[in-house]
Amino acid sequence: MSCNAWIVSIGNELLIGRIVNTNAAWLCRKLLILGFSVKRVLTIPDSEEDIVEVVRECVNRGVRVLILTGGLGPTYDDITSESLAKALGRGWEVNSEAYSMVVEKYRSRGFEITNYRVKLAKMPLNSKPLPNPVGTAPGIFTIEGNTYIFALPGIPSEMEAIFSGEVEKILGEIGSKTYFLEGIIIVEGVPESIAAPIIDKYMKKHGEAYIKSHPKGFESSKPVLDIRVLVGGVNVGNAEAECSEIVRELSGELVQNGGFIRSTSIQRLNH
Amino acid sequence: MSCNAWIVSIGNELLIGRIVNTNAAWLCRKLLILGFSVKRVLTIPDSEEDIVEVVRECVNRGVRVLILTGGLGPTYDDITSESLAKALGRGWEVNSEAYSMVVEKYRSRGFEITNYRVKLAKMPLNSKPLPNPVGTAPGIFTIEGNTYIFALPGIPSEMEAIFSGEVEKILGEIGSKTYFLEGIIIVEGVPESIAAPIIDKYMKKHGEAYIKSHPKGFESSKPVLDIRVLVGGVNVGNAEAECSEIVRELSGELVQNGGFIRSTSIQRLNH
C-alpha cells in the first residue's frame, strides 16, 4: 500500500504573504520520519469551493494521509470543518466528545458557551475529536476510502501539540517502518556544476538514496556546497552502512576534483 | 480580465521539510501589491509528471500569472525548464540570448562551458530569458494562452533579484491598478470568540475589506489580538478613508466589549 501524503494549508493570510507556511515544513519532516512520502503541499483560500475540490481530489486519488491545517477557529471565515463535511457528503453536527472538551476549556476559565464557541465542537459525522492541549479548538480525525484525514488548527503551537499527542500515534500504525539516516558533507572549492555529474553518478549507483547539493555561495567564484545524503531502509544497520559508504566515497571524489572537505557527519532521523 | 495567480514551488527538499518555503510568502506579498490575487500555492516534487500536470491545469483554467520556482540549476534533478517545454508542447533548445548570459557569467570567472552549464541556457521555444544578477541560471518568461509564465530559481536571493529586476516590470503592465492600505489594531482583553461576531459585522458592512484577527495569547485566559484590516481600491484617497473608518469604528466597539487598545496604525502597501 502506498504511503503517500498531502498537506493542505487553508488561509487567506498565507496567500497574501502575511504568514510564512512553517507548518508545512514541520509536517513534511514529521511525515517523512513516520514513513510517509509527501507528494503535494497546497495552500488554498478560506473558500468552501476550494476546500471541497482539493479534499475530493485527494480522496479520489487514494492518497493515504491528508492533513489540513487552518480554519478551525471561531471566526466567520473558519470554515474548514463544515467544508470537509460537505466534501465527504456527510452531515455537520455537534460531536458530543468534542463538545465536552470545548465546554471544559471555557468553563474552567469562567467563560460562557456561545454559538461561536459551540461551533468549535461541530464536526463531520463519524469523526473523532483530537484533544488540543494548547488552545480551544479540538482537531478532527476521520477516514474516507483509503484516506486518513486530519484537520488541525493553523496556529503552530496548537497544530504541533495535537500532532505530537494524537496524530503521530495513529500514523505510527499505518506508516512504513523505515529508518532514515542523513549524511552531511560541507565542501569548499567545487562549483555545483562540477559536483552535479558526480552526485548524479552516486544517485544512479544507490537507487534508494536521495542526494542534493545546496549552494552556499556564488556558484562560480567561491563555491561552498552543503550536500545532503538521505538514506532510508527497513534495517537500520544496512541503512547506516549505505549512508556512510556514500558520504565516504562522494567526499573522496570531491577532493579529487579540487574540493576541501570542511566537515562530514551522519545522523539518525527517527526511531 | 481576472488577475489571479498561482505559485508553484518545485523541489523534493521542500517536501521532506528541509527548507521552509519563504519564497512563496515573498511572492504572495509582491503579487498582492501588484494587483494580483494568489489563488493557490503548490509544492510539488522534482518530477516531470507533476510539473506537466500542474502547468497544464493552470493554463487550462486560464490563470493570469503562473510563477514556478526551483529546478533551474545544473544538477540532474533540475528539470523545470525541460518539463515546462513538455507541458506546453514546445521544443526545448538552447536560447541564444540565454546562452550569451551564461557564457559571460562563466568566462568572466575563468570557467569553461560544459554540457552541465549549457543546460542553463536551454529553454522552451518562444521564451525570453530574464537576467540573473546574482547567480548563473537566467529566469524564463513565456506566454501560453491567457497565462504569463515565469520560471525562477529556487535560491531566494536569485529569485528575488530576477523578480525585482524584470518580472515586476512585466506584471506592472497587466496587474489591476489597485492601492492597498493595511490597518493594524492590537487589542488586549477581548477573546477571539467575542471579537469574531464584531469583525464579521464589519466585513459585511465593507464588502471589499479583508479583516482577520490573529490571537497572540491563549484565547480564553489573557487574550491579545492582532487585527489586520486590508483595504484595496483604485482611488488611494477613498481607500485610506475607508481603512481609517474601519479601524476607528472597530476599535471603539472592541473597547465597549472590555478591550484595551494597545495600538493602531495604518500604512500604504504599494505605489
What does this structure look like?
Two copies of one chain form a homodimer. In chain A, the strands form three sheets. A six-stranded mixed beta sheet of chain A has the order 2-1-3-8-7-6, with helices on both faces. In chain A, strands 10-11-9-12 form a four-stranded antiparallel beta sheet, covered by helices on one side. In chain A, strands 4-5 form a two-stranded antiparallel sheet. In chain A, 40% of the residues lie in helices and 28% in strands. Chain A folds into two domains: 171 residues, Molybdenum Cofactor Biosythetic Enzyme, Chain A, CATH 3.40.980; 90 residues, Alpha-Beta Plaits, CATH 3.30.70. Chain A has nine helices and twelve strands. By secondary structure, chain A is of the alpha/beta class. The two termini of chain A are 22 Å apart. In chain A, a hairpin with an 8-residue loop joins strand 10 and strand 11. The mean pLDDT of chain A is 92.
Which terms would index this structure?
alpha/beta; 271 residues; Alpha-Beta Plaits; homodimer
